[in-house]
Amino acid sequence: MEKIVVKGVKELKGEVNISCAKNSILPIIAATILCPEPIVIEDTPKLEDVDVICKLLSELNCDVNISNVNNRLTIDTKNIVEMDANTELMRKMRASFLIMGPMLARFGYCKLSLPGGCNIGSRPIDLHLKGFKLLGADIIMGHGFVEVKAKKMIGSRIYLDFPSVGATENIMMASVFAEGTTIIENAAEEPEIWDLAQFLNKMGAKIKGAGFGKITIEGIKSLKGISYRPICDRIEAGTFMIAAAITNSKLKINGVNEEHLRPVIEKLKECGVKFSEYINNSVIVDGRATKKPLDIKTLPYPGFPTDMQAQMMSLLSIVEGVSVITETVFENRFMHVAELQRMGANIKIDGRTAIIEGAQKLTGCEVKATDLRAGAALILGGLVAEGETEISDIYHIDRGYVEIEEKFRRLGAEIYRINV
Ligand code: EPZ
């Protein structure tokens, strides 16, 4: 079994390059199903989740190739088949469910195993199915599968009870060829939604309003092959900003869109972190000043991202004073608290609220990554804990962070992967 070992307490220095966004490239790869011509995606991040969705497309008889030159991913879905997608792969990554919208748009049919829940919540798909139904699809559920079929997709007005990222993406893709106009109201506004729409429009789709609460899709006949580079990963960038803060270091981070990270930057500024020299998507993050406690509530974009909640909790665990974090997006996203408590963090949970009494220091010990961002939070804790922190179940981390220990090692951290 692989583990990551981190030796604290080290100041970091230098610069780090942020990879392309996991949560952009997954829906973009799913969207290639809409186009029978070859698509090239540049700078594809080497991530477990990218491997899973590429394997899924290969099993549907698509040609999927990645070259070392520029990590160039080429996908040709010309010969795609309609067979039922591999249950085991579907269960492995819920984002696989994002192929349902494009399969429905291209074939008028799709049958997938229901995506599992995960450690952070039940992860329902009711809003995805509500959109498909309003677009003219019949939904059949049973035996752990969901089947959608439609003789003809008709544009419709779809209101999302919650601005679900996945539902917005799946419905946007399902409606690309629908007759007439589709309007998605109370749509998710995350930058990755904007990126997916940019990708689809470059292929010839007619989508307006992505990144805002109301998205309009005019149905078209077909799409053409293109090449595309997704946006940088704002959550990876935010993770390294917190690394600078938690280790009292000054770092240069390359691949930062200030607008996409506004909620994280504003909260870190409130905490005492300084940001300067925003030049060509790079920023200097100075975390050397004394930090102040914070009150944070996670919200859909443009609120504070739930995907940064665990990492922020690691920082606030060593900031003197009482901080409060309220998780409003997922119902069970405090699994990392027990692990941070093992390291000496003083955290109390009251429903969806965590009250953090900043401890003087954390101490290294054996801990377990319980989900992707919790794993990153434990690495951050390990960077400032006295002694060694040994993190197991690191497959969670490999799902969403490219070569994380190499990137931290290049900043001077004592961190390495072991096989036990
Ligand atoms: C995406 O998940 C991201 N994953 C998640 O990132 C991220 O945490 C989440 O959006 C919120 O920003 C990808 O983009 C691959 P949602 P998604 O649908 O689409 C409820 C990471 O660490 N909901 O916006 O699954 C749901 O229960 C991962 O990179 C319904 O009720 O998130 C949850 O409470 C973790 N019905 C809330 O919406 C539905 O049909 C947010 O879920 C769908 C969702």
Automatic annotation (TrEMBL):
<dbReference type="GO" id="GO:0071555">
    <property type="term" value="P:cell wall organization"/>
</dbReference>
<feature type="binding site">
    <location>
        <begin position="123"/>
        <end position="127"/>
    </location>
    <ligand>
        <name>UDP-N-acetyl-alpha-D-glucosamine</name>
    </ligand>
</feature>
<feature type="modified residue" description="2-(S-cysteinyl)pyruvic acid O-phosphothioketal">
    <location>
        <position position="118"/>
    </location>
</feature>
<dbReference type="GO" id="GO:0008760">
    <property type="term" value="F:UDP-N-acetylglucosamine 1-carboxyvinyltransferase activity"/>
</dbReference>
<feature type="binding site">
    <location>
        <position position="307"/>
    </location>
    <ligand>
        <name>UDP-N-acetyl-alpha-D-glucosamine</name>
    </ligand>
</feature>
<feature type="domain" description="Enolpyruvate transferase">
    <location>
        <begin position="7"/>
        <end position="407"/>
    </location>
</feature>
<keyword id="KW-0573">Peptidoglycan synthesis</keyword>
<keyword id="KW-0670">Pyruvate</keyword>
<comment type="function">
    <text>Cell wall formation. Adds enolpyruvyl to UDP-N-acetylglucosamine.</text>
</comment>
<dbReference type="GO" id="GO:0008360">
    <property type="term" value="P:regulation of cell shape"/>
</dbReference>
<dbReference type="GO" id="GO:0009252">
    <property type="term" value="P:peptidoglycan biosynthetic process"/>
</dbReference>
<dbReference type="GO" id="GO:0019277">
    <property type="term" value="P:UDP-N-acetylgalactosamine biosynthetic process"/>
</dbReference>
<keyword id="KW-0808">Transferase</keyword>
<feature type="active site" description="Proton donor">
    <location>
        <position position="118"/>
    </location>
</feature>
<feature type="binding site">
    <location>
        <position position="329"/>
    </location>
    <ligand>
        <name>UDP-N-acetyl-alpha-D-glucosamine</name>
    </ligand>
</feature>
<keyword id="KW-0963">Cytoplasm</keyword>
<dbReference type="Pfam" id="PF00275">
    <property type="entry name" value="EPSP_synthase"/>
</dbReference>
<keyword id="KW-0133">Cell shape</keyword>
<comment type="similarity">
    <text>Belongs to the EPSP synthase family. MurA subfamily.</text>
</comment>
<dbReference type="InterPro" id="IPR050068">
    <property type="entry name" value="MurA_subfamily"/>
</dbReference>
<keyword id="KW-0961">Cell wall biogenesis/degradation</keyword>
<keyword id="KW-0131">Cell cycle</keyword>
<comment type="pathway">
    <text>Cell wall biogenesis; peptidoglycan biosynthesis.</text>
</comment>
<dbReference type="InterPro" id="IPR036968">
    <property type="entry name" value="Enolpyruvate_Tfrase_sf"/>
</dbReference>
<dbReference type="InterPro" id="IPR005750">
    <property type="entry name" value="UDP_GlcNAc_COvinyl_MurA"/>
</dbReference>
<feature type="binding site">
    <location>
        <begin position="22"/>
        <end position="23"/>
    </location>
    <ligand>
        <name>phosphoenolpyruvate</name>
    </ligand>
</feature>
<dbReference type="GO" id="GO:0005737">
    <property type="term" value="C:cytoplasm"/>
</dbReference>
<dbReference type="GO" id="GO:0051301">
    <property type="term" value="P:cell division"/>
</dbReference>
<dbReference type="InterPro" id="IPR001986">
    <property type="entry name" value="Enolpyruvate_Tfrase_dom"/>
</dbReference>
<dbReference type="InterPro" id="IPR013792">
    <property type="entry name" value="RNA3'P_cycl/enolpyr_Trfase_a/b"/>
</dbReference>
<feature type="binding site">
    <location>
        <position position="94"/>
    </location>
    <ligand>
        <name>UDP-N-acetyl-alpha-D-glucosamine</name>
    </ligand>
</feature>
<protein>
    <recommendedName>
        <fullName>UDP-N-acetylglucosamine 1-carboxyvinyltransferase</fullName>
        <ecNumber>2.5.1.7</ecNumber>
    </recommendedName>
</protein>
<keyword id="KW-0132">Cell division</keyword>
